[in-house]
Write a structure and sequence with these properties.
With about 80 residues, this protein is mostly helical. It is about 70% helix and about 0% strand.
């Protein structure tokens, strides 16, 4: 799972994270590719700073933490499933 996929799933939320998701997705964000492995967090920070109002920086930080928890939960549940097989 990447942040963009997680963000798309958050669009229906009735809070500031949902607002941020709608703003970023409506801007039809295209991540620039480079020869180096991109730093997903830095790429999204730069995007939020460029597109969103300054008060959304804290919202982004909260969203990123939720994303990391969801990502870890997905990995943990995958590990449990693999051990059960």
């Amino acid at each position: 799972m990447n942040f963009e996929a997680w963000l798309i799933a958050q669009q229906n939320r009735e809070d500031l994270i949902g607002d941020l998701a709608r703003i970023l997705i409506m801007q039809n964000i295209e991540q620039k590719s480079s020869r180096r492995k991109p730093d997903e967090h830095k790429t999204w920070v730069d995007t939020v700073i460029r597109i969103a109002k300054p008060e959304y920086i804290n919202v982004f930080n909260e969203a990123w933490q939720e994303f990391l928890l969801a990502k870890q939960a997905g990995i943990d549940s995958l590990n449990v499933t693999q051990h059960l097989e």
